[in-house]
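Re: beginner question about structure tokens

> Can someone show what the tokenized structure looks like for a real chain? I only ever see the sequence side.

Sure, here's an example I had lying around. Input first:
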Amino acid sequence: MYTFLMKRFLLGIFTCFAISVISFLIIQLPPGDFVDRYVETLLGAQAAGTELAQTIEDDLRVQYGLDKPAYIQYFKWMNKVIRGNFGFSLEYQKPVWDVVQDRLVNTIILAGGTILFTWVIALPIGIYSAVRHNSLEDYGVTFLGFLGLAIPDFLLALALMWISFFWFDASVGGLFSSEFAEAAWWYGGLWNISPGGTILGPAATSGCYVSDIDQYVDCGWNYARAWDMIKHLWIPAVVLGTAGTASLVRIMRNNLLDELSKPYVITARAKGISEWKLILKYPVRVALNPLISTIGYILPFLISGSVIVSVVLALPTVGPLLLAALLSEDLFMAATIIFLLGLMTVIGTLISDILLGIMDPRIRIES
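And the corresponding structure tokens:
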């Protein structure tokens, strides 16, 4: 088992390296770069190609290290990453990690809440549906499952926002109340965004607004802010977890049905073991294996697949930040986020391998 995990760990390191190389090079494929867009915004489109614009572009490329070939830029960036420095964000004019860290924490917490919601709902419903096979309840669960898979996440988010606003006169956007809502960079500009997603206007600086002193301060993390986030977490978790819940219900139901038809279950029934004890002790454990294996990709899927939902619900997560970085060609920001997504995929896969080894002795023996 330890040899197997060590092999997977070494393979994960190689995978992260490959992801970083491919993503760094792909980001540079579109014509132009951040400097071209910045100078065009600064001087106007009519000044593009002039001697002044060319001089400014050359100076900026030297300043940011963009005058070097792509492979040299990559190795310089990777040398910094190894030491915990993810480079300098051209768009935000600050270290990449300073911009990413808060949103990364929010994203991981949201992903964890979504996974918890998905498993807590999907497992008992999937077990019940399998036990009540071909009953009215089973058909109802199947119908709701297909409905959950068919409804896009962003459409469900819009529907919840509409119901909340017009029926309850409340906002469901954001992860924090107004006193904890951060000012956020939004596609090239610093804006103060309300929890409901309303752009209130340009913010003087980033941070949390404190009405008593009429200014923004560093948000930080404390008990009050953490509890405020927990209170707002359930709506985006439900929106992001609906399709995943429907999918896992189907997987659990089908796996358990397959196990319940095997000879060892029939033999156990013949020996007089109670039905629920029999189901929960053996078939459910085996049926969980395919679900555990989904941990490896569900976390990065929630992060990368929730961009539109994050925009609709004004969630301060990594998804919109990646979209903004790609649109503005903020090279080091985009490369860092993609690298972190790959790293989380590797970590998730390693965790699923460990859990599978714990749950199923056959895997330990084979490895």
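Each token stands for a local structural state, so reading them left to right follows the chain. The chain is about 70% helix and 5% strand.
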